[in-house]
Each structure stands twice: as C-alpha cells, then as structure tokens.
Amino acid sequence: MTTPADIERIDLGLVNRCNLACPLCPYVKRDIVHTQKPAHADIHSVISFLDKLPNIRIAIVEGNYSEPTLYRHFKELVTYLKSRNIRIRLSTNGNTFN
C-alpha cells in the first residue's frame, strides 16, 4: 500500500483556462471553453494537500488543455514549492497574453 511518504513526484493541474485557441484542441473544437465556468484551485487547499506529502521532490505544473501560468496564485505556489526545495517542472505555451 502506498502512503503519503512514498510520493516523491506530483502533477498539478490548477486551472481550466488557456489563452490560445489551437484548432485541434478538444476544448476549442467542442466549445467547452465557452460553456465551462473558469475554475482555479484554492491555493490554501493545494498547500494543505502538499503539506501532507513530506517527501515530494518534483512538482509538475501543467494543464490538460490549459495554461498553468494563468493560475491566479501561480507566484504564491512557486514561492511555496521553492521554500520546500521542491523542483518545479513547468509545461507552458510561454504566452500569457490574451
């Protein structure tokens, strides 16, 4: 059985928004982006959850059909991760313009 202490790497999907409209993206093709309410993970809940994982070494900050740098608490999250010496792997389109 896996325990919280066994977990060393975590994927974090924190927002359901993207600033691009890629033609092959399912969110664009199915118009999900216009029918789904914008959602951002509560930063206090994220930090509380991560605090329960004492041996996290890598946080993969990405999004399924979203842009993680649009997360409204992105800087606060990075500050927290760095304070725990957790390496950050970021998957981004590198464009936060709208």
Describe this structure in words.
The chain is built from 4 helices and 3 strands; from the N terminus they run βαααβαβ. Helices cover 28% and strands 14% of the residues. The chain is elongated and about 40 Å long. The mean pLDDT is 89. By secondary structure, it is α/β, with parallel strands linked by helices. The longest helix has 10 residues, at 74-83. The chain starts with 8 loop residues before the first strand and ends in an 8-residue tail after the last strand.
Provide the succession of SSEs: EHHHEHE
- Secondary structural class: alpha/beta
State the share of residues found in helices, binned by percent. Answer: 25-40%
Mean pLDDT: 89
How much strand?
5-15%
Query: Stretches where pLDDT falls below 50 for ≥5 residues?
Result: none
Q: Roughly how many Å apart are the termini?
A: 45 Å
Spatially, the strands of the biggest sheet line up as: 1-2-3
- Tell the overall outline: elongated
Count of discrete alpha- or pi-helical segments spanning 4 or more residues? 4
Number of strands: 3
The largest sheet is: 3 strands, parallel
Q: Radius of gyration, Cα only, in angstroms?
A: 15 Å
Short description:
Helix content is 28%, strand content 14%. It has 98 residues and is of the alpha/beta class.
List the helices and strands and how they pair.
Blueprint: E1 9-13, H1 26-29, H2 32-35, H3 43-51, E2 58-62, H4 74-83, E3 87-90
Parallel strand pairs: 1-2, 2-3
